[in-house]
């Protein structure tokens, strides 16, 4: 089944070229089914690239999904034209009254800044607080995961001696967990970050479970046991070329660029990178949509808003 997006979103053409079924809003209005409503808070600088990556993964299920895109209006976007944002994105004020089955908060290249120094931090805090009553399950990615844990629980981040960059062998700690149904014992997981959350701070949180870990990259995925909050410290959504693009960007900027590990064949950056995480990414996002969102949320969110209470148990959803 398709992902439903705003008509004429440029990502549609790329997705269709990949033989992925995307339905525009006009066609979707003719169908009489209960779609899932998702909100993507896109904090990445290359908006269109990130949209395409996430929509590609969301499309790989038999569910129809309505997707709204949001950017923080308190931030001046430099890499995307304002006309594009006006056409395809919402501000927080425009979605404040809505209820969503799922929320995805992307990463952002801000790890080395203090959270409070981020120009849209107050808006981010407002979105997190709003999500407790208006969103059923939230998926935080990379910086979005670190920022979410800090905003909700005061979990601090720590500067790493060197950027963690590459594709790392990651564990599946609980094969019975819904998010890892169908997974092998290990999976490949791209990471690209300068900071990390302290594992000991997360272990003391009530009702949290560490789901994946890497010997070289550290924490991979943690989640609340009721699946209302899920935190990915890497980038399963990345395309084949994304780590290479970031590496070349850092070199061009004169930074101490770290060549992505386990990415280029024979560690030769002149060879095209190998993608080894596509199946894990597709399965993880499908499991999230199925078990944390579709199986749990009520039929009409705004009429059953009590289901969105922060402490509601998804196992008891009607």
Structure description:
It is a single chain. The chain contains 10 helices and 11 strands. The protein has 318 residues and is of the alpha/beta class. Strands 2-1-4-3-5-6-11-10-9 form a 9-stranded mixed sheet, sandwiched between helices. A two-stranded antiparallel ribbon has the order 7-8. Helix 3 links the parallel strand 3 (36-41) and strand 4 (65-70). One of its GO terms (molecular function) is homoserine O-succinyltransferase activity. This is Homoserine O-acetyltransferase.
Write the layout of secondary structure elements.
Layout: E1 3-5, H1 11-17, E2 22-24, H2 25-28, E3 36-41, H3 47-58, E4 65-70, H4 82-88, H5 92-95, E5 100-105, H6 121-134, E6 135-141, H7 143-153, E7 157-171, E8 186-197, H8 199-203, E9 208-214, E10 218-224, E11 229-232, H9 242-252, H10 278-294
Parallel strand pairs: 1-2, 1-4, 3-4, 3-5, 5-6, 6-11
Antiparallel strand pairs: 7-8, 9-10, 10-11
Helix pairs in contact: 1-3
């Amino acid at each position: 089944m398709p992902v439903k997006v705003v008509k004429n979103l440029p990502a549609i053409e790329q997705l269709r070229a990949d033989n992925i079924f995307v339905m525009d809003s006009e066609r979707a209005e003719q169908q009489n089914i209960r779609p899932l409503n998702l909100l993507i808070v896109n904090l990445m600088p290359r908006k269109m690239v990130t949209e395409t990556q996430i929509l590609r993964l969301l499309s790989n299920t038999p569910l129809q999904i309505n997707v709204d895109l949001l950017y923080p209006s308190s931030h001046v976007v430099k890499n995307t034209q304002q006309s594009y944002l006006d056409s395809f994105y919402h501000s927080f004020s425009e979605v404040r009254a809505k209820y969503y089955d799922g929320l995805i908060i992307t990463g952002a290249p801000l790890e080395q800044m203090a959270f409070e120094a981020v120009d849209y931090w107050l808006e981010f805090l407002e979105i997190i607080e709003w999500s407790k009553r208006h969103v059923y399950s939230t998926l935080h990615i990379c910086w979005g995961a670190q920022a979410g844990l800090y905003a909700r629980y005061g979990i601090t981040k720590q500067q790493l001696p060197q950027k963690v960059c590459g594709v790392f062998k990651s564990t599946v700690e609980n094969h019975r967990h819904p998010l890892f149904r169908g997974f092998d014992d290990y999976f490949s997981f791209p990471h690209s970050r300068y900071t990390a959350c302290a594992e000991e701070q997360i272990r003391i949180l009530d009702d949290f479970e560490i789901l994946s870990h890497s010997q070289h990259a550290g924490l991979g995925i943690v989640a609340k046991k009721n699946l209302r909050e899920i935190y990915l410290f890497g980038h399963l959504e990345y395309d084949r070329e994304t780590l290479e693009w970031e590496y070349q960007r850092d070199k061009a900027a004169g930074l101490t660029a770290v060549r992505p590990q386990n990415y280029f064949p024979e560690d030769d950056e002149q060879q095209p990178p190998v993608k080894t995480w596509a199946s894990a990414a597709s399965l993880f996002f499908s499991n999230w949509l199925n078990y944390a969102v579709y199986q749990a949320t009520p039929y009409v969110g705004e009429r059953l808003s009590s289901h969105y209470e922060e402490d509601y148990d998804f196992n008891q959803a009607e």
